[in-house]
Amino acid sequence: MAKQLLGPFKEILTMEQLPEAGPLADERMHLVRDGGLLIEDDRVLEVLNHQDFVQYQGLAEVKGSPLAHTPIKQSTVLMPGFVDAHTHMCYAGNRMEDYARRLAGESYLQIAERGGGIMSTVRSTRQATEDQLYGSLTMRACEHMFGGVTTCEVKSGYGLDLETEIKMLRAIRRVNGAVGTFPLLVPTCLAAHLRPPEHRTDQQYLEFILRRLLPQVKRDGLADRVDIYVDKGAFTADLAEGFLFQAKEQGFHLVMHADQFTVGGAMVAARVSAMSADHLERSTEREFRWLREKGVVAVALPGSSLGLGEPFAPVRRMLDSGLCVAIASDWNPGSAPHGDLLTLAALLGANQRLTMAETLAGITCRAARALGLEDRGVIRAGAVADLVGFPSERYEEVLYRQGSMRPSFVMRGGRRVVKAPQAMGG
Q1: To 10 degrees, what angle do helices 118-127 and 162-177 make?
Q2: Phi, psi at residue 243, to the nearest 5°?
Q3: What is the distance between the alpha carbons of residues 293 and 284, in angstroms, rounded to a whole number?
Q4: How far apart are CA 283 and CA 260, in angstroms?
Q5: Count of CB atoms situated within 10 Å of the CB of 180
Q6: CA separation for the pair 132, 92 (Å, rounded)
Q7: Strand, coil or helix: what is 314?
Q8: What residues contact 329, with CB distance under 8 A and at least 6 apart?
Q9: Is 340 helix (H, G, I), strand (E, B) or coil?
Q10: What is the value of pTM for the model shown?
Q11: Which of 151, 138, 137, 131 shows the shortest CA–CA distance to 91?
Q12: Could you tell me the domains of the chain?
C-alpha cells in the first residue's frame, strides 16, 4: 500500500506525552497547527508540522509519486479516534418499560426484584440467535463509529448460561472479522453479572463459570478479560475476590463493576490488581487511595448516572487524588441507553468541572490504558491510524458543543475514511 499524506488540518490534537494519571491542564496538550499526517498501512508514520506537510505535498504532486495525498478541504480539527472502555452493546430486546417505571418512582433495585432489570434482557438475549445478536451489534457498532469511537469494549453478561454467553462472545468476534465501518471491539466475559435462577447459590454459579465457561472462552480465544458485578443484589466482595483470583490463574485480565450503589468493590479491585474499576459513584478518598496505589484505572460511567437519575461519579475528586480516570458510555439497554460517548463525556465534564484536557484524555489515551492498549488513543509515530475529524478551527468547540457537533470523517486503521451522516458545520 502506498504511503498516504493526510491533511492539512487546522489543528491536530495528538494527546501525546500526557501524564497517565492525575489532573491535566489544557496547556499540557500538544497541538500541531496547519499540519498533517504521513500514514502507511494502518499506522501513523509521522506527525507533520506545516513546513514538513507542504514539502510532502509537493512530493505527492510529482507524477508517478508513491505518495498519495488525501486532501482535507474543510477546516478540520483532528483527534485520536475515541476509545469507549465499557459497554454492554451486545444484547437483544429493550427495557423501555423499566425506564417508564423508574420515571414513575421505582428504583433500579426495586425493578430488578420484580422481574425487570438485567434478567429481563437475559430472557430476550437467550431467545435471540447468534445471527440476530450479530446484526444488532453491527448496527450499534456502526453508530458508535459515526460518533468517532474507533475502539470499543463490549461485554457479554446477558446470557448467564454456557450457550448464550458463548453465543454473545462469538457475535462480538464476528463483528471484528467483518468488513465494514466498525470499531475494534474488545470482548470481555461478564458471565458474573448476576446469578441466574437455575443456580441455587452465588458460589455454585461462580464455580460453574470457572470450571465450565471460562475454559471454553480461553480455548476458543473469545476473550481474555473477565468482569464481575459487585454490589447489593449482585455478588459480594468476598465471593468476587476469590473468583477473580481464580480467573487470573486461568490467564484472564481482570476488570470490575464496583461501588455503584454501595462500597466494597473498589477494595477488591485493588487487592486483585484489576486493570480497571468501573462505576465508583459511591467511592470515597479511601477507595481512591487503594486504587491509586495498585495502578487501577477508574472508569466513570456518566450514561448510567444519567439514565438512573443518580449523581455522577466524583471524577474531580478522583483526578485530584491522583487517579487515572477514563470516561465510558456504559451503553446498555437498561440503565444507559443513551450510548453517545462524546455527549456523555461533555456532560460529565461540565458537571464535574473537568478541564477539556481531562475530558478528552478520558475518552482517548487514558481510556486506552483502561483496555491495556498502548497504540490507540494517541496520534504519534507507530500508533494505529484511528482518527476522528471535526468541522471546526479549534478543538475547544467540540466539547463546547456538548456532543451536537458530529465528526466530518472517521478513519479506522488508516484504510477507510467514513463520511459521517448529518455532519454539522462549525
Answers
A1: 70
A2: -60, -45
A3: 15
A4: 8
A5: 12
A6: 8
A7: coil
A8: 84, 86, 87, 301, 303, 336, 338, 339, 340, 341, 344
A9: coil
A10: 0.95
A11: 137
A12: 3-81+377-418 (2.30.40.10), 83-370 (3.20.20.140)
The grid coordinates of residue 30 equal 500538544
Strand order across the beta sheet in which 253-258 lies: 82-84, 149-155, 184-192, 225-229, 253-258, 276-279, 297-300, 325-327
State whether residue 326 is helix, strand or coil.
strand
For residue 8, whether the previous peptide bond is cis, meaning omega lies within 30 degrees of 0, is: yes
And the C-alpha cell for 90?
Answer: 451486545
CB atoms within 10 A of CB 25: 10
Among candidate residues 283, 370, 381, the one with its CA nearest the CA of residue 324: 370
Cell 418499560: give the residue.
97
Closest Cα to residue 389, out of 17, 3, 5, 13? 13
C-alpha cell at 219: 480455548
pLDDT tens, N- to C-terminus, the chain (426 residues)? 579 999 999 999 999 999 999 999 999 999 999 999 999 999 999 999 999 999 999 998 888 888 999 899 999 999 999 999 999 999 999 888 888 888 888 887 787 777 778 888 999 999 999 999 999 999 999 999 999 999 999 999 999 999 999 999 999 999 999 877 799 999 999 999 999 999 999 999 999 999 999 999 999 999 999 999 999 989 999 999 999 999 999 999 999 999 999 999 999 999 999 999 999 999 999 999 999 999 999 999 999 999 999 999 999 999 999 999 999 999 999 999 999 999 999 999 999 999 999 999 999 999 999 999 999 999 999 999 999 999 999 999 999 999 999 999 999 999 765 554 443 332
The cell numbers describing 67, all together, are 505518495
